């Protein structure tokens, strides 16, 4: 089966003399990429087993979001979202192993989708405890309204040996 065609706006060599591609081209491709992921979407859970010496910094980044204007962001205990003006939101939520340290990495002119970008992330500020460690994170990239503190309080995570069980508010459980 041939790949579906992506209909792009007409090239604009006045705004972009070298390629003719403008912001509208990149936005069209970004929307298409998100649409292509929908059939394969599952709750975004990441699990990491870290074998490292004591004191090593462990960091987990969410998805970068970018726009013409600076994305809004906030930080809480174990959660951090970044949101563009059109509602595209990236959020990270600590489920297991992380301390409460969160932050937002901001860049200027570093992303093709807009001059202002922001990436929420978790960091184990105290450093890795040494030997084996398990870190479990909930990641989301969505246009839906997200309440990261409520997510953190309502999603449960149980770790037994090598098995991780995440239970969502509606009762659905994922074993990783």
Compact summary:
By secondary structure, this protein is mainly β.
User: Which class do the helix and strand fractions yield?
Assistant: mainly beta
Give the C-alpha Rg.
19 Å
Strand element count:
12
Strand content: 35-45%
Shape: elongated
Number of domains: 2
CA-to-CA gap between the ends?
33 Å
Mean pLDDT: 82
Helix coverage percent:
10-25%
Number of helices: 2
Unreliable runs, pLDDT <50, ≥5 residues?
Answer: none
Explain this structure to me?
- The chain has 176 residues and is mostly beta strands.
- It has 2 domains: 1-41, no CATH class; 43-148, no CATH class.
- Helices cover 12% and strands 42% of the residues.
- The protein has helices spanning 23-37, 148-154; strands spanning 45-52, 59-61, 65-67, 72-73, 79-83, 89-96, 102-111, 114-123, 131-142, 156-160, 163-167, 173-175.
- A 5-stranded antiparallel beta sheet has the order 1-9-6-5-4, covered by helices on one side. Strands 2, 3, 7 and 8 form a 4-stranded antiparallel beta sheet that branches. Strands 10-11-12 form a 3-stranded antiparallel beta sheet.
- 23% of the residues are buried.
- The model has no long low-confidence stretch (mean pLDDT 82).
């Amino acid at each position: 089966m041939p790949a579906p065609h992506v209909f792009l706006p007409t090239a604009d060599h006045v705004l972009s003399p070298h390629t003719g591609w403008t912001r509208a081209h990149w936005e069209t491709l970004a929307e298409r990429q998100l649409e292509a992921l929908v059939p394969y979407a599952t709750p975004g859970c990441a699990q990491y087993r870290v074998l490292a010496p004591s004191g090593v910094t462990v960091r987990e980044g969410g998805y970068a979001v970018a726009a013409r204007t600076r994305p809004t962001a906030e930080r809480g205990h174990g959660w951090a979202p970044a949101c563009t003006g059109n509602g595209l939101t990236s959020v990270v939520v600590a489920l297991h192993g992380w301390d409460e340290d969160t932050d937002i990495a901001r860049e200027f002119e570093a992303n093709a989708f807009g001059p202002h970008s922001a990436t929420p992330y978790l960091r184990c500020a105290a450093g890795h405890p040494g030997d084996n460690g398990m870190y479990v994170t909930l990641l989301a990239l969505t246009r839906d309204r997200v309440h990261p503190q409520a997510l953190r309080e309502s999603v449960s995570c149980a770790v037994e040996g090598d098995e991780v069980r995440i239970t969502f508010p509606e009762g659905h459980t994922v074993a990783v």
